[in-house]
Fold:
Amino acid sequence: MTQYTDISGWSREQMAQRLAQDIPDGAYVNLGIGIPELVTRFVPEGREFIYHTENGLLGMGPSPAEGDGDPELINAGKRHVTANDGAAFFHHADSFAMIRGGHLDLSVLGAMQVAQDGDLANWSTGKPNAIPAVGGAMDLVAGVKQVFVITQHCTKSGEPKLVESCTFPLTGQNVVDRIYSDLAVIDVTPEGFRVVELCPGVDFKTVQELTGAPLLPANQ
Amino acid sequence: MNDKRVLNAARAVADITDGSSIMVGGFGEAGSPIELIHALIDQGATDLTVISNNAGSGEVGLAALLKARRVSKVICSFPKSINSTVFPELYEEGFTELELVPQGTLAERIRAGGAGVPAFYTPTAVGTLLAEGKEIREFNGRRYLLEMGLTADFSLIKGHEADSHGNVIYNKTARNFAPIMAMAANTTIVQARKVVEPGVIDPEVVITPGIFVDRVVEVSDPAHESQLIAAGVTYQ
Structure:
């Protein structure tokens, strides 16, 4: 049995870079907190993505220089950002009309677990003493046209994050379209998980051993 | 005479009674009406229900109101933030109840409440723990949850500039929940950096029309949560 910690897969930056290649020019994109935020560093040459942050900004730009932050210009992670030329500010109901109304092209989220039918769990461990907090995740998966998950393939203790069915509380049912892990790019299809691309140096058998549900090979 | 100006924050919140429901604008520190909240702490009303996206940071603003044990219930989407210690303690103790609502559902419930719509169907949270006990109905082959509109006795919001008629414009992402909360409360109280005469704000750029606003108070140099926390301030 292969140990997850023995494998050298894509770095977080390489995962983000690989994901960015699949975003079309002109797409309206909402990036979740954490690894998804790295996507902004890897916009392919000749393409422009327009970033939405659910607290009321379309056309979000990069972080300002240290010390230049405006406490009234922040992203959903409550970090200082900037507004690009062509940006727009709006209130929360309009912001979630963009999300729920299917106007955004892509949502990129982190995950605790993804099931083979596309169920996503990323908001709560479900432990009785945990303080629940959901934010906008359930709205994003319910409304955005495409949902990409970017995540380590397994937990720190080596448990698969791609599973037959989620054991953590769900964020949404049948919502994930594609997963970018450190080991592979994997589509969620009606038949289950299908490998689209393997990280160089990582073989199908290894990824299968570290996945909690059957994998289909890439289409020939 | 349509003059909604009030002399100071203390007068603006003077009639808030025990047991009131209060919408508080802001997303994190952006748009948090700290001076109005501090005036409410001084005023003493208790057993409040607070409707806000977050549950405060440090021991200033909303967190200070919670710390003073004035809030029996919080309706919000994300009660955990950096420097957020007060709410977790009160929640674990059982003093403050939490109604957790997805962020977009919270926004739409407030907009619906302000627009005279008692309830609506949404796809958000179908098939999750937050759908428990809610009516489900299918439209065009997809399942939706029935969610109720939300109104409140008061809204406390922060604007950038307001005029004496109550027209308000905001600053960047400090706008967030303020325009919809202004619509959904029986009495809406606005603090603004500058309060001007009618006609100064171009009608084309007004975000919240004055009909949704009851009181306007000038707070020319409002504090920011992060700066107060960094300076070690606790409000009590």
Observations:
- The domain at 4-214 of chain A is CATH 3.40.1080.10 (Glutaconate Coenzyme A-transferase).
- Chain A touches chain B at residues 53-57, 70-74, 78, 83, 89-93, 95-96, 99-100, 124, 126, 129, 131-139, 142-143, 169-173 (CB under 8 Å).
